[in-house]
Amino acid sequence: MDHTTTARERWLGAICYLSIFVFVAIMAKERTRFLARHCRQGFALLFAEMVGVAFIFIIDASLGKLPVLGFILVIVLRLVFFLAVLSVSVLGFTKALFGEEWRIPYLDELADRVPVETNSP
């Protein structure tokens, strides 16, 4: 039987892509397959954000100490990282809001390993 997504499921799926708010959707009482998929992807995106921030912090603490080149390098890395995370978050938010399923490129294997299960039909 084909399950149509409700407005509640779509909104919970959308907030999965708003960084730490993914835990709101993970704690939802009723998680359908649609919502569980977006929860896994949102958590994988949050993990990638934390790894990226740690990487940029390390680069800033080491190469960022170079007078001009280090400053430019860190600014460019932060800008590229911010735009990449923002674009993936906006895309995931809109896809979930419209009831579509999608896979985040390069993070889909990590998302499949996140243990968020369905607990409703």
Question: Could you explain the architecture of this structure?
Answer:
- The structure is a single chain.
- The chain has 121 residues and is mostly helical.
- The protein has one domain (7-113).
- The protein is 65% helix and 0% strand.
- It has five helices and no strands.
- The chain has helices at residues 7-15, 22-26, 33-62, 69-97, 108-113.
- Helix 1 packs parallel to helix 3 (33-62), helix 1 packs antiparallel against helix 4 and helix 3 packs antiparallel against helix 4.
- The mean pLDDT is 90.
Please give a quick description of this structure:
The chain has 121 residues and is mainly alpha-helical.
Query: How many helical elements?
Result: 5
Structural class: mainly alpha
First CA to last CA: what distance?
Answer: 10 Å
- Report the sheet-strand fraction: under 5%
**Overall morphology:** elongated
* Share in helix: 55-70%
According to DSSP, the number of beta strands is: 0
Q: Give the integer mean of the pLDDT values.
A: 90
The helix/strand order is HHHHH
Describe how the helices and strands are arranged.
Elements: H1 7-15, H2 22-26, H3 33-62, H4 69-97, H5 108-113
Helix pairs in contact: 1-3, 1-4, 3-4
